[in-house]
Design a protein that fits this description.
With 300 residues, this protein is α/β, with parallel strands linked by helices. It contains 12 helices and 6 strands. The protein has one domain. Strand 4 and strand 5 form a beta hairpin.
Amino acid sequence: MRILKSVNHNEYSINKKISFKAGWNSQISKEIQSCDIKKITKQLDEMGIKADFKNNKVVAWCCKKVADVFCQLNRKYKFKLALPKQIQVEEFSKLKIDDPDLTGFCNWIPSRVFKKSDKVFPERTLFFNSFEQKFKKTPNSSKWLYKWENIDQIAEFQHRLGYWSSNHFLAPFIHEFGHAAQNAFLVEKLNPQDLIGKLEKLSDRAYIQKFKNKVCKVIPGISSRGKEDPFESIAEDMAKRISLALNSELCLTCNPFKGTFYPRRDFMKSFLGLFKKGSKYKKDTMENKALKDLWNGKEI
């Protein structure tokens, strides 16, 4: 996911004074400033997630909160959503990726990610950009966009532009965790070769153009980021639904996936839930069917 794709930074620099902060409050700011990264890293390790946050308190604190939310989804609402295997904060200019301005990405298959290293990172590794080089090269009026401490303002800004599906400051983290959950689902469903073939097919330029033309019709109101490819559509849907269900303490107040296709441990309960009276699935059949197909790695 990117920050301000095709946007003139200077034109929007005034937005650094945005006052509305979705989900953010002074208590959260204090908690982040005083958080113990070593403690968070240990807690995530106990959840099966290896992490190297490079002393980035914002990313560390937010990832731990999102991990807790996904655990709540699995524990309280009986979903079957896998957590990431690993989380890294890195300077993206050092990585073998097409766009070093990405905010973050999920590694879908074991890969050598660094330009000058043969180290292989496993699937479901989340990478978040340190933005060290981008911050240095960006004009002063727009530097705020590349400081994680401004994630609340950045999220509001991106949402106003229509690029992110939610203005909640946890949205970009939920987005990447969503990629990891779908990755685990497809890895369990497909053999490695079929998964690679599926990824190649669904990222093919010809298909992406066809996808962009159709996705707006079947998923009204989808964000610009969600239109980029099928996997972004799922991650954006998850970010939006979960963000809307969080209270000021960042705990779920309801089941954000009620009546949807997201996998649950109890298959029959999940199946019957789709046809419950008042189910959102019945109201949004076309949208939910499209998202279900995308979750399962199918074309729409």
